[in-house]
Amino acid sequence: xxxxxxxxxxxxxxxxxxxxxxxxxxxxxxxxxxxxxxxxxxxxxxxxxxxxxxxxxxxxxxxxxxxxxxxxxxxxxxxxxxxxxxxxx
Length: 89
Fold this sequence. Notes:
The chain is of the alpha+beta class. The chain contains one helix and seven strands; from the N terminus they run βββββββα. It starts with a strand and ends with a helix.
């Protein structure tokens, strides 16, 4: 996981909340504050990566602070590009 501090819109059913992310990987995103949903809940996430790439994807709440991502290929490519960029010295 790589540090990422951006505001993420999280929605499920009739609930919509915003949380500040702390870390992201190709398959998960972690937050500093709890998400008020039950584990296993399917959610939609919307956020912008530094540099401007928009990510609009779905995922599943793993625990109070982490969502497993299920990005489509274009969103996954944007996340992976961000991670490669951050790994460069």
